[in-house]
Amino acid sequence: VQVALLTVLAALDTTAALVAACLDELVRRPGPRHPGEVVERVLRTRGPVRFVRRRATGAHKLGGRTVAEGQPVLAHLRSAHPDDDIGLAFGAGPHACPGASIARAVAGGAVAAAAPYQFVRTGEPMLDASAQIAAYALLPLGLPDIREDQL
Asked: How far, in Å, CA of 8 to CA of 65, rounded?
């Protein structure tokens, strides 16, 4: 039960972080784009999960050091393949996130709903202090003032 609850909470946190990053992407790069394109760009460049914990499956040389088989390691997903578009935001293989398609759908829906509006920043965003999840603690967005005669 504890593992299931932690999994659900992690899914909520990471999906909320993905949605916020997608909304911020709309503000950073305004203009018409397909929601899926916005979501995939965010996942490629600043996906919500920074690190994953794994155990080495064999002895490896890494940065001049030897990592022994079974030793715990932290893999930084954004730097794993910085020049490749291999999509590690949701992991891969047996450790792939089972909720990847749901998170993409939720984020895509949020982008589709927000895209017709010209959101602006109303203050400076603040990142959460979490080492594992790249999320906003504060993302102040608003709509520009609209005069009554524009309605």
From this structure: 36
pTM more than 0.90: no
Confidence of residue 84 (pLDDT cuts 50, 70, 90): low
**Bridge partners of residue 73, in order along the sequence:** 54
Identify whether the C-beta of residue 21 lies closer than 8 Å to the C-beta of residue 40.
no
Q: Are 43 and 87 in contact (CB under 8 A)?
A: yes
Q: 52 and 75 in contact (C-beta within 8 Å)?
A: yes
pLDDT in tens, 4-26: 888 888 888 899 999 999 999 99
Instruction: Tell me the H-state helices in 47-99.
Output: 77-80
The greatest distance separating any two alpha carbons of the chain, rounded to the nearest whole angstrom, comes to: 69
